[in-house]
Design goal:
alpha/beta, 8-stranded mixed β-sheet, Rossmann fold, globular, 10 helices, 8 strands, binds S-adenosylmethionine
Length: 245
C-alpha cells in the first residue's frame, strides 16, 4: 500500500545544486549561498555514513557497507526508499545501494534505512549515470531500474536513461552473471531496451530474479510507481537481463 504521497519536490533537485556541490560544501561547514529553506538539503548534510555524494562513494565503495564482501545490488531511481527497504530486509546476504537525484527522496530513503536499523543498505545522491561510472569494474551483482524515466513521449527519447552508454557502462560494472532488472509501463521502451541489451551482448531471460533460492522481492511488493500504474490499469512490463560474458 502507498503510505506517503510526496511527489512534489519544490526546488530540491540535485541538478539545481550540483554545480556547486552544495551537500559536500555543507558537510565541510562552508558558508554557501543557496536557499536556506531547503530543509532536505540541510537534513541530507546530517546523514553521513548513510547518504553518499559522488566523491564519498568514489573514495569508500564498497566499504560503505558493514560487510563489504557481500554482492551489491544498485537500485537506480530509488525514490523514497520503499524498494531499498524491502530488498535490504529480505536479502541480508546482499548489500543494497539506492541512488536518486533528489534531496528529499534520498533523505526519506535514508530515514527508512535508519529506522529499520539495516546495515546492508546505503543511499547515494546524484545522477546514476555518473555514479555508475565511478564504481569499480565488476563490483555490482545487479542493477535495478524500476520506472526509470518520467518521459513518455517520443520527443523525449534522447533523454532515456537505458541507452547505449548505460549498457556499455553496465557491461563493465557488473560481475559475470550479473543482472539488470527493468520495470516500465512503456512497451516501446521495453522493445528499445531489449534491442540495446542484445546489441551489447546481454541475454534476455524469462526469470525475474537471480537464482538465490528465493525471489529478491516479495510477491506482494510493488514499487510506488508500479502501484500508481496498476491503479490506473496500465500494463506493467518487466525485463530481466543477464551479463553472460
Ligand atoms: C518515475 S520514478 C520511479 C521511482 C521508483 N523506482 C518506483 O518504481 O516507484 C523515477 C525516479 O528516478 C529518479 N531519477 C530520475 N533520473 C535520475 C538519474 N539520472 N539518476 C538517479 N535517479 C534519477 C527520480 O528522482 C525518481 O525518484
Amino acid at each position: 500500500m502507498v503510505q506517503e504521497n510526496e511527489n512534489i519536490d519544490q526546488g530540491t533537485s540535485y541538478e539545481q545544486y550540483a554545480p556547486g556541490n552544495y551537500l559536500i560544501r555543507l558537510r565541510n561547514n562552508e558558508t554557501i549561498d543557496f536557499n536556506p529553506f531547503n530543509q532536505y538539503l540541510m537534513l541530507a548534510k546530517q546523514l553521513t555514513g548513510l547518504l553518499y555524494t559522488r566523491p564519498e562513494l568514489q573514495a569508500s565503495f564498497p566499504n560503505i557497507f558493514q560487510d563489504p564482501t557481500l554482492p551489491v545490488v544498485m537500485e537506480i531511481g530509488c525514490y523514497m526508499g520503499y524498494t531499498v527497504l524491502e530488498l535490504a530486509g529480505r536479502n541480508p546476504d546482499l548489500n543494497i545501494l539506492g541512488v536518486d537525484i533528489k534531496y528529499k527522496r534520498v533523505v526519506k530513503s535514508c530515514n527508512k534505512i535508519k529506522r529499520a536499523s539495516l546495515r546492508n543498505a546505503a543511499i547515494a545522491i546524484g545522477d546514476a549515470r555518473e555514479l555508475l561510472t565511478i564504481i569499480s569494474d565488476r563490483s555490482l551483482f545487479g542493477i535495478l531500474a524500476f520506472f526509470p524515466d518520467p518521459w513518455r513521449r517520443q520527443k523525449h527519447e534522447k533523454h532515456r536513461f537505458l541507452d547505449d552508454h548505460f549498457f556499455e557502462t553496465a557491461a563493465n560494472k557488473l560481475t559475470a552473471k550479473g543482472f539488470i532488472w527493468i520495470k516500465t509501463d512503456s512497451k516501446p521502451y521495453v522493445d528499445e531496451v531489449t534491442a540495446k541489451a542484445k546489441k551489447h551482448g546481454f541475454i534476455i531471460t524469462e526469470g525475474l530474479s537471480p537464482d538465490r533460492g528465493r525471489p529478491l522481492i516479495g510477491e506482494d511488493h510493488r514499487t510506488f510507481f508500479e502501484q500508481l500504474f496498476t491503479n490506473m490499469q496500465q500494463p506493467i512490463y518487466q525485463l530481466f537481463i543477464i551479463k553472460s560474458f
